[in-house]
Amino acid sequence: MFQNVFRQRAGSESRVFNLYLGRGDLADWLGLSLETVSRCFTKLKRAQLIDFDEPEIVTLLNLPVLQAIADGAASV
Length: 76
Prior knowledge:
Elements: H1 2-10, E1 16-18, H2 23-30, H3 34-46, E2 50-54, E3 57-60, H4 63-70
Helix pairs in contact: 2-3
Domain HTH crp-type: 1-64
Organism: Rhizobium rosettiformans W3
GO biological process, one term: regulation of DNA-templated transcription
């Protein structure tokens, strides 16, 4: 879901976007702990699915796998 939102915001071909929210704000918005959000980002980064140029600049490295995860068809 979030991947689709960010792709629409950044343009369908763009793979780099500004998150605009800190991890704490994102955790609050999602109703999760900061630690959970950080673990999820770390897991996605270690799986080489995302990367961070700066803390708020996210690069989506493997859109098909991220889409499969978002659809519930795959896991990290």
